[in-house]
Design goal:
about 80 residues; mainly alpha; about 0% strand
C-alpha cells in the first residue's frame, strides 16, 4: 500500500469559500479537491523544474559541507 502523508493548511476565507463552492459543484469533499489540485501541480513541468533546482542546490550544499567548506547565504525559509 502506498504511504500517505497528512498536512494541515490555513486558507483565507475567500479561498476556502471558492474551494467549497467548486467541491460542492463537483460533488466531492473540499479536502479531495485540494488534494487533486496539489497532486496536479506536483506533476506539472514547472514543479519538476523547481525540484531539479532544489536537488542541485542540496547536492552542492552537501558537497561543500562534507568537504569542510563554509556554506553561507542559503536560506530555506519561505
Amino acid at each position: 500500500m502506498t504511504e500517505r502523508y497528512m498536512l494541515s493548511i490555513t486558507l483565507s476565507e475567500k479561498a476556502y469559500e471558492e474551494y467549497r463552492l467548486v467541491a460542492a459543484w463537483k460533488k466531492i469533499r473540499v479536502s479531495t479537491l485540494i488534494r487533486q489540485i496539489l497532486e496536479r501541480e506536483h506533476e506539472s513541468l514547472g514543479f519538476g523544474e523547481l525540484v531539479k533546482r532544489a536537488t542541485a542546490e542540496w547536492h552542492t550544499i552537501k558537497d561543500e559541507t562534507s568537504s569542510g567548506q563554509s556554506v553561507g547565504g542559503n536560506s530555506c525559509e519561505g
